[in-house]
């Protein structure tokens, strides 16, 4: 009886795995063929460079591709950190950090503005007992917001390139 159960389970598992073959995401970053020829970073330079380095590593895949579009990139990033809750003594318990990125992408061949988009995202985090742990949590929140902005920008780029 157990052998039959295991065989049926194995058959269902193999059928499920076989059904996933050929999967391709709709907005794949490998389909984007662009080269960053010029860029400008305004506002918070550190956060702007984080977004730029992610895009630049993707554009380096197309360095030898003659069909890749040459783009000009302008990144303006600002960060806002506010206390959202305090205890009765006035000690801050939780922060909300907001990231506002205005990204402009211009096609250099026909001087056409492809993207002029404002990406806004926010996250909250609690103050920890150790200050260093709070700083680590803040940095992790900023990293997650940068990744979200990057992913949203990739979706916009793939919509404009296709």
Tell me the β content: 35-45%
SSE topology string = HEHEEEH
Biggest sheet character: 4 strands, mixed
| SS content category | alpha+beta
Distance between the termini: 54 Å
Q: How many DSSP helices?
A: 3
Q: Under CATH, the topology is which?
A: Double Stranded RNA Binding Domain
Mean pLDDT over all positions? 84
The global form is flat
State the strand order across the main sheet: 1-2-3-4
Radius of gyration: 22 Å
CATH-defined superfamily: Lipoprotein like domain
Residue stretches low in confidence (pLDDT < 50, at least 5 long) are none
Known CATH architecture: 2-Layer Sandwich
CATH class: Alpha Beta
Tally of structural domains: 1
- What is the number of strand segments? 4
How much helical structure, as a percent, in the residues?
Answer: 25-40%
